[in-house]
Design brief:
Blueprint lengths: L1 H15 L6 E10 L4 E6 L2 E7 L2 E2 L3 H5 L5 H18 L5 E9 L4 E6 L5 H7 L4 E2 L5 H12 L10 H8 L42
Parallel strand pairs: 3-6
Antiparallel strand pairs: 1-2, 1-5, 2-3, 4-7, 5-6
Length: 205
């Protein structure tokens, strides 16, 4: 039933929003954690959006990495709070509908000044879907190296597990070969022994 409602809403939005390459303004209602989606409202129509360029950690992903139910509940609470500091409920945002997914709309979400997907990557709260955009890839690397957001000490292992990020094995630096110093004397070579003639002397008393 839930899936049918989403499909019906997406059809309504498509007809109401003219063309997919136009921006619309909609009010943000909240982050739907179990499905990694953002819920907006435009008039009487509700829009269930998924970022076109970045991915957030869904509840299904993190459940594979956190087995303790209490820890999972804490993560979900922290995640919702952190994301909703960037995309604030009741605030209005620009939405460009890129495509229609199975149960959601694929969207670009922004303010007048910034791309919210890129902002979330910079904050360590999302990861780029592809590596074809340099700004997103660079932002993700800096977020991981800078231990920002979910890549801080508290959730670094969980986030890397959920996003499928593997740490590169640290290779041991090769030891430089020791060269003999100029001051070190060269090893002595033994001369081959020769059979030298011996002279025997006898003293007659």
């Amino acid at each position: 039933m839930k899936k049918l409602i989403f499909i019906f809403l997406s059809l309504l939005v498509t007809s109401a929003c003219a063309r997919n390459d136009d921006f619309i303004v909609a009010k943000f209602l909240g982050f739907v954690q179990d499905e990694d989606r953002l819920l907006f409202k435009r008039g009487k129509t509700r829009l269930m959006c998924k970022f076109s360029e970045v991915t957030l950690i869904s509840e299904k992903q993190v459940a594979k990495c956190i087995k303790d139910k209490k820890d999972l509940k804490t993560f979900k609470k922290d995640q919702k709070n952190m994301i909703e500091k960037f995309i604030v409920p009741t605030q209005r945002y620009f939405i460009k509908i890129r495509a229609e997914g199975k149960n959601e709309l694929i969207c670009d979400i922004s303010t007048e000044k910034s791309n919210l997907g890129l902002d979330l990557v910079r904050a360590g709260l999302a990861m780029p879907k592809n590596d074809d955009k340099e700004a997103f890839v660079k932002a993700s690397v800096l977020a991981i190296e800078g231990e920002k957001g979910f890549f801080g000490k508290k959730y670094s292992k969980v986030s890397k597990c959920a996003f499928g990020i593997k740490d590169e094995p640290k290779s041991k630096p090769s030891e430089p070969k020791k060269e003999p110093s100029a001051e070190q004397p060269a090893p002595k070579t033994e001369e081959p022994t020769q059979n030298k003639p011996t002279i025997e002397m006898s003293i007659n008393e």
